[in-house]
Automatic annotation (TrEMBL):
InterPro entries, alphabetized: HD/PDEase_dom, HD_domain
Organism: Dactylosporangium maewongense
All copies of domain HD, residue ranges: 25-134
Protein name: HDIG domain-containing protein
Superkingdom field: Bacteria
A Pfam entry, by short name: HD
Amino acid sequence: MVRQRVDVAAARDLAEALLTDLPQRWAHTAGVAARAVELCAALGPAMSPADRDRVVAAAWLHDIGYADPVRDTGFHPLDGARFLRGAGWAARINALVAHHSGACYVAEVRGLHHELAEFPRELSLVADALTYADQTVGPDGTRVDVRTRMTEMLSRHGATSDNARVHHLRAPDILATAARVEHHLHLATA
Ligand SMILES: [Fe+2]
């Protein structure tokens, strides 16, 4: 029987076990999880306790696809989501991991859009909060703004990378996501 669980502590433990050999990725992951906790608290009633757990668990798990035991296609959102599905994680967590930070655009250029479609893309504040947390924490775990993060990502991946090829589609999507989250943050503090 498939377990349908959203266990934040288990998500953290799994991420730590898988990413120990990738210290910078682990630092980034811990930073994104901390950012997610802070963000969900700041969103107040806009985020239910169950959804807070979903965002934070997905934040811990979003980059496990980079770990050697998880890597399969080499596209980390898809590899992470498939690994979690196989381990019996909740379908929404798997799908959040699959689609974090505009993964659908990169999947298209890599010819993996059919594979990514195994997981439905959730359009919600939960999904937005995960992407916002990821896009406001740099590779070393430090806080950055969304535009700085995207500029750094492009220089890290290179001008001919898959990320660069879809940047004209992905960047506006991520900026729109950030605007929605910041609107909710504004409402929560108004
Ligand atoms: Fe990330």
